[in-house]
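Re: the request from the purification team.
They wanted to know what the chain is likely to look like in 3D before they choose a buffer screen. I agreed to run a prediction and write the result into the notebook, where they can find it.
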Amino acid sequence: MKITDVRVILTLVGPRNSIFVFIDTDEGITGISETVYKRRSKSVEATILDLKRSLIGKDPTRIEDIFEKMYRDSFFVGGPFHTTPMSAIEIALWDIVGKSLNAPIYKLLGGPTRDQIPVYCHCPAGATPEIFAENATACVARGYQAMKVTLPIFYGAATKLELGGKQTDQTFGYSGSHGTIDPSHKETEILEPDIFKRIAEFFAAARQAVGPKVHLAVDCHGRLSTANAKCLVEALEPYNLLFIEEPVPPENVEALSEVTTYSKTPIATGERWSTIYDARRFLGRRAMAIAQPDVVNCGGLAQAKKIAGMAEAEYVPLAPHNPNGPLATLASIHLAAAIPNFLILETIGSEADTALQAELIHPALEFRNGAIVLPKGPGLGVELDLDACAKYPYEPFKGWR
């Protein structure tokens, strides 16, 4: 079997552009995949098409060899912008192999360790604690027993999402919309003295609304200094969070390790890792309690599974980053199924986002009791509806922290 073509389409899937990749072969098998790089989608598309030159004529089953050559032959290595295009190609190759062998990818990775994949949803904070409590209650009503909010006040107060200079009618449940703090506010700049008390009020209201058995988590997007992160973990300690994600910016391992050592609440990070080499720096310093690699950015399924093995040796569970579209979610599900130290998988999980994703793939994912049932089909287990994709053309996103 040989690769004959590599194609890319960009589709607006709620709060992100999904970069869908198709790798054709001379045996009529086409592998599909998705990656997301919200603020640089066109650049990722161009890189994938640039890599096409080195892929034509290759045996698509030689996944490790193809990845190694893509990674090393560029000479300049590292960083998620380098590995995101390769992740999409790598996952499409796994889809080809699965289809050629009539087996789901998770069976190629060692077989399933579970039959259902527990997931959490995004829960927008809203402008007040009362609104957050209402949103959390609605998440539970949809069947979720775990949810994550992006740091209140910093995020979540906006009711609309900005796309291409226009305001959409809804956020599709994404919790990272604008808050009342400048989105470019630097972690070392001064904050209002009561900020952490006010943030804690959001979690007090949500905890009272959903009760003690529902998991709550918060994503800080790296917006705090080390000192302020310590203030946050103290303020939120009474609410028994599942984790606090990226409390400080991602570059400084020592700073995050200091917060992790200080916090009684588990600290999570890893979505901005690329390959095992980034993961090694953090795991070696025990800089987090929960690892969050994103399979569509860290190098693909093989790299993510290697990271899972490294984390397992440190007794660290994986909660993969995945505020992504349907094929990225499928890739994450196959990873989660094949590793023993899986914790929970991120999804946006709103009614609007779930309905849109179900329109794009067949068969749709099956959600049951706070979990997604493992797909049974070969490869990723689904096909992409190109007619449906054509209804949602690419829109540029304006980025912020």
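For the purification team: The radius of gyration is 20 Å.
Please add any questions underneath this entry.
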